[in-house]
Structure formats: structure tokens, C-alpha cells
Amino acid sequence: MTERRLHLNAFLMNTGHHEASWRLPESDPYAHVELGHYVHLARIAERGTFDSLFLADGPQLWGNLAQRPAGALEPLTLLTALATATEHIGLIATASTSYNSPYNLARKFASLDIISGGRAGWNIVTTAGAEAARNFGLDAEPAHAERYARAAEFLDVALKLWDSWEDDAIVADKAAGVWGDDTRVHPARHKGRYFSVEGALNVPRTPQGYPLLVQAGSSEDGKEFAARYAEAVFTAQQTIEDAQAFYADLKSRTTAAGRDPGHIKVLPGIVPVIGSTETEALAAEQVLEDHIVYAHGVGRLEALLQLPPGTLELDAELPSDLPPESVIEGAKSRYTLVVELARRERLTVRQLIGRLGGGRGHLTFAGTPEQVADAIEQWFTSGAADGFNIMPAVLPSGLDAFVDHVVPLLRARSLLREEYGPRQTLRERYGLPRPANQYVTAPAPALARV
Amino acid sequence: MTERRLHLNAFLMNTGHHEASWRLPESDPYAHVELGHYVHLARIAERGTFDSLFLADGPQLWGNLAQRPAGALEPLTLLTALATATEHIGLIATASTSYNSPYNLARKFASLDIISGGRAGWNIVTTAGAEAARNFGLDAEPAHAERYARAAEFLDVALKLWDSWEDDAIVADKAAGVWGDDTRVHPARHKGRYFSVEGALNVPRTPQGYPLLVQAGSSEDGKEFAARYAEAVFTAQQTIEDAQAFYADLKSRTTAAGRDPGHIKVLPGIVPVIGSTETEALAAEQVLEDHIVYAHGVGRLEALLQLPPGTLELDAELPSDLPPESVIEGAKSRYTLVVELARRERLTVRQLIGRLGGGRGHLTFAGTPEQVADAIEQWFTSGAADGFNIMPAVLPSGLDAFVDHVVPLLRARSLLREEYGPRQTLRERYGLPRPANQYVTAPAPALARV
């Protein structure tokens, strides 16, 4: 049996995950629309032999423009450009099941999978918030359960479309004048509650069959969805105990869904803040916190907690009469995480904003490279994580620091590959099998020609 | 005043525009899903200092697989990959207004425009055919007029979205902690018959403001749409007289729509078949015709003419009682072109299929490089064309032949640029101004920062 290895994903977001990162002298405030910036980040992550990189997304303009860099290059477009600038790293794009058509989205991911040589991944989101809904003809956000019902049907349709060409549907018999075998192409013939899709996809089956399926919702609906479909899960966990409970719960739900629990990889998000001493790391954190504009943070926190503007006081704790998660229609698990963090540590609103500014609820690992590597190893070996979603507070410097100082320690401890070795698909990097085609009874070949 | 120059677009389609091209010994039957094939073609076109390259598209699996290469990489995805492999050439993707959401599509084109440094173009199509409709929840194709009404509203929404950020909306004041100016971002607030889109785009204004708008429908609805929006028009014309009439008509419609007729470029499609002698060129054409599988062609022609299968006889002319264009709901102008071609030359079904096999209704210019250059010059200087949509019968060899043998003649006659010179946007290559932002009364700066 091969050794269990850590899976690392680089979560790229313009000048970094700390909301004030763009204000540092080193940061380029136009980085969010600079291809060169992202190419540079992708190459750093490849130097660190990460499994993948990842882009978040929502089809709306977030928050207010004054506060921090807004807008972005559309993730599937940006990742396609990055595919040509990298060789090994997986490319995971977020895309919404609520505001896309399965036929269009399935084509784009199939095309990216072919162009990247099997390195595409899809972070499946249902997209919370009324702003997005109102960009797509709706007056309000669909209910949480409704969004997940649509997501499940979307997946079923997309999987039919990705399987619609058998791996050997292309015959290419020039002499006979027969290019393809129509009996090996299967129309979706799907008629459901949300979608009606008749035809076969107009892209042949791809190197991976379909993109690695990734998911990040930690609500009840989200975990059930993940257990059924996801191969990798991003999650925000503030303590190792919470992370262990989440990990065990998700693996057991996956088993209950009839799947191998080894075929779902759990990656908590961490914000590494690295210094050559612990003091230096904490000082770097403090510099970032000093750049936060708190007036903006209050408004954002009120929106997350679904409170009217002006409710929160900066130097008081959260109100005691907040509603339970069950009535929240937005990002349910994020809501609970933030409320529990504030109550557990009795944080004022100001302190809470400071903590969230760094990673929006993800855990900060601040310290020396050894301390960060120790924390990673501890989580990895104690049933809290199969790997990590690395969310540097400042980019590119935070990713550089992680790759230069933490990665060598992880390699020395045999937790991380020394080099990529031969080309692999993203699914192979994550130690997962190529999916069989649902229309074929015989086992699929290892790799399609394309 | 600068000299009037020819505009050249390379219409790329797997192994070439002739339906039998994939059967030639030189052709790669997997070319349609090989990024390397398209990179090679794009670089040939750049060697020929073409203005742009272009990919057709429809969101359905075309025709039958036995006949010829089917499926493709999705055009926006493929062009993004080509953007990173080229420096100067414009990148025009076809996308449907009937089967996309304005918010999603506007983002993707804006992202491609930024990534390519202002080289994006959009060939706007309404997508004929029930196959596509049935992939998007409809039972049948929407009526022709309905599709065009939706297209016009789609454009209006997209133009609002592309203008939603003023060019100087990003302030980037690190000291004050102010990244952007919210007063310079304008939500679409669109409520119409087909679309309701509330917010601003989540991509800043792009180098071109928005992609070059291209159109290829030659029906009445199509020409009216082109007169209102299009900056370049692809068209199929079988004779110089027809091309002159189309050209004059479109320019006068553009004037009537209140636009400068110089701001719409007309590019008929031509299939160049080049030989060192005329006999050699005609022999090359004959080889291709000999590879046509006629049984497939009959079915395709019946579909185009909306006749029941089994109606047409291979060695007879078309039936005399075909319906008028007005009742056709599919590709109206293509229908009329094919019927008129068959009647004018009294072609049998077999002969008609042979003629259509090369360029699906586009004119073949077969001959020596001088003969092809002469025909191009004649059309260009006699009010039939502002340039050409070059559709080689076989790829890459046909594009190579055109660039190696015809392009030098066009340059010697001062009809085509000798080299690209400094970087330009696609719109600059076509000699068109950067559009002003509809929300700004002062003139726009020459180029945005991004």
C-alpha cells in the first residue's frame, strides 16, 4: 500500500485572503485582472508540488467597491489561460448550479479538461444571496433546499452529458469514410423537475471522464450533497475537534451513500502566516489587522448575520438573540461558524472582524515554518484532514513563503511528494480512479485518446 | 487619409471546411479536440497578418457522427487558450443569444478581452434548429422573429453590463483605504421582455470596452440586426453581383440606423483552393469531391430544405415546389442561397452536394495564387467586400498555401499590411473606434488600465 500523502490546494484570490492585503506596499491593486499575476501564483504552487489551485466565484459584484478589490476574471476563462502556462497542477473552478445551464457548463468543463490534459475540477456551488438571483431574472434567492434539489438534478444531467460519448466512439476509418460510431453516443434524454435536456454533449469524453467534483457547503444539505457526489471537500473549521467531527461525519455519510470513504478528500482551509520567529509572524498579522477599515467590516458582518444595518456595535459582543441556523437562507454553515467563534472566545465585533478579515472564518496558522508544519501534520495524522486548502493572507508573498519554508519540512517528513513525476490527471493526483462511463458495462480504458 | 486595406479573417474548423477533408492522408481525424492543432493554425494566420480568427458554434451535437468530425472544444474556452499562444490576432467566438444568460456571457467575453489584451470578438448568433432548443428545456425552436427580438434585448443588456464600470472606477488609494469609487459603477437595472438583470458586471471595463460585435445572419431580421449592432459581418455570396447588392444594402441600412457605414465591415466567405496551375487547383478540388459520401449529403440537404427524409433523388434537380424563404424557421438566407444556386446552374442533387461540400454555400475561388489574388482584389475594389472570411477546404495545408502564396501578392499590391506593427486591439485592426461608455458624458480615454 502506498503511503498516505497530504493533498494541497492553493486558493488564489487577487492580493490575498486578508481583506486589507491590497493596501500593503507590496500589493498590486489591479492584480485581480492581471493574467500575469495569476500565472506567477500558479507557477509558485507548481514549485510547491500542490495538487491543485482553486478560484472562488459568484455571478454578482460583491460588497462595496471602496473597501477592497472587486470583480475578477471569470474562473473558467482564467483557468483555461493558466492551463497553458502550467504542466501538472489541477485547475478547480467554482461554478453555480443555480445560474447555469447544464449543457453549457458541461461543455466548458469538458473543454477545459481536454485542453489541460485532464486537470479540470469543478467546485460545485448553489450560490447564496439575492444579488446573484437578481442578475438572472429572479426577485429573490431561491430557498436553500430548493437550490440543493436543483444542484442534484444538475449533477445528474451533467454526468449523463459527460458520459454521452463512449471513450471509443471515434472510429476514424478514413478508407470506409466512417468517422464516428453513432451507436456509441448516447443522448441525455433527461426530463426532470428543473431541466429538460435531450441531446448528447458536443464534446467527446475527456481524459478524466469528467472534472474532479469538489464541494464546499457544510450545511446539512451541503454535507448530504458532498457525500453523494464530491471527491474533494473544502471546509472552514476553527478547532481540531470540530475538524475531526466534521471529517468523521462526512466519511460516514459517504459510506452510507454507498461510496468508498477514501474517495472523498477533506481539505480544511488554513491561512498560514509565517515568520522566522513566532513574534515576527504575529507582528505580520498585526500589520494586516491595522489596515482593516472597520466601518466596512461591520456592514459585511451585518449582511452575513442577516441583521439590519446599524444593529452591531463595534466594541460590544454580538447580540444574544440571533436566530438559529435553520432559518438562515444564505451561507448556513458560515453563519454558525462565525456566531460560535464569537461566543466561544467572547469576541467584540471589532475583534471578530479582525479574526474574519484574515480568512473569512478559516483558521489562521501563524508562527514559524516548523509550527505551521507541526499543525498541518497534527491535523493530517489525527483524523481532521486529508490535506489543506492553503489561503495565504497576502499574495504572492504568502504563497512564496509557504512553498519556500513549509513545503520543504512537509517533504522531509514524507508528507508531501518531492516532485510531480510523470504527468497525471487531477483525479490521479488525488488518488482517485477514473470514473466508468454509465452507458458502458465493460471497464473503461485507462485514458481516452483525447 | 490612410489607404483602405483588406481585412482578413481565418475561419478555423478542425480539418477544414470541406466535409471530406478529414479523409485525406494528411488530416488528423482527432484535430477537432487537439489544442496543438488550433495553436498551429492560429500561428499560421498570424504569419499571414490576418486581422482575426473565428470559430463557429452551436450548443448541440451536429448531424451524424459517421459522416465527419463532430463535437468540438467550446469556442470561448479554446480562444482563451489561443490568446496565450498568440500576440496580435483577434479572437472571435460564436455564442448564442437564445441559449445563454447575458450576465454569464458578458463576463466571459470581458474576461477574454482582458486576458487577450483587447482581442476578443463575439459572433452573435440566434441559433437555428430544434436540436439546440431541446438541450435547453424547449420542445421546439423559437420562431425566427422571436429569436431576433431576444437577441436585440440581449445586446442591450450586455452593453449595459460592459459599461457598468467606468474606465476610471478603480481608485486604488492605499493610504486612504479606498480601492474603488462606487459612484462610477452602474447597475444594469434592466427589466425587459426576456431578461431582468439588476446588478453591475463583476468585471471592470475591458481594453476594448466590449468585444468586437460580429454577425452573420443575412435574412431580413439578420440584416436589420447587423445594421444596428454589428461592426463586422460574415456572409455567403455566390456571385460578385449578389455580393455588391448585399454590401450596398447593408451599408445603407447601417446609415439608416444612424451609424457610420464605414463602421461595419463586410466579409464574404471564400474557400480558396490553390494550385501552381489552374489544372492542379481543379484536380485538388476533384480529389475532395471524390471523398464525399453522398448518402450523408442527401440527408443534410433534406434537413436544410426542411423536406422529409427520402424526398430528394441524387441525380435529379431539386423539386420545383419548394416553399418560399418566408415560411422557413431555420437558417433563412442559407436556404435561399442554396435553392438559387441549384436553380441558376440547374444542378442535380449530386452536383449541388459537391458544390456545398466545399464551403456549405460559400464561394470557392480555385486557381493559381494570382487568380485567387485577382478575384479578391476585384471584389474588394468593386464594392463587394471590405475583406474576406477565409475558409480553407483543408487545414492546416490550405491556410498555409494561402499565407505562403496569396498573402505575398496581396502585400505587393498594398492591399494587406506587411506586418502587424505595435500591439493593437481587434477593433483598432478593423479601423474602428473604441466605444464610449453609455454612462459617461465626457469622451472615454483611449485605453483602460486593465
UniProtKB/TrEMBL annotation, chains A, B:
Keywords: Flavoprotein, FMN, Monooxygenase, Oxidoreductase
Pfam families reported in the protein's UniProt record: Bac_luciferase (PF00296)
CDD domains: Nitrilotriacetate_monoxgenase
NCBIfam families assigned to the protein according to its UniProt record, in alphabetical order: FMN_nitrolo (TIGR03860)
Record keyword Lyase present: no
Domain Luciferase-like: 31-384
InterPro entries: Diverse_substr_monoxygenases, Luciferase-like_dom, Luciferase-like_sf, NTA_MOA
Lineage: Bacteria, Bacillati, Actinomycetota, Actinomycetes, Kitasatosporales
Family statement: Belongs to the NtaA/SnaA/DszA monooxygenase family.
Protein name in the entry: LLM class flavin-dependent oxidoreductase
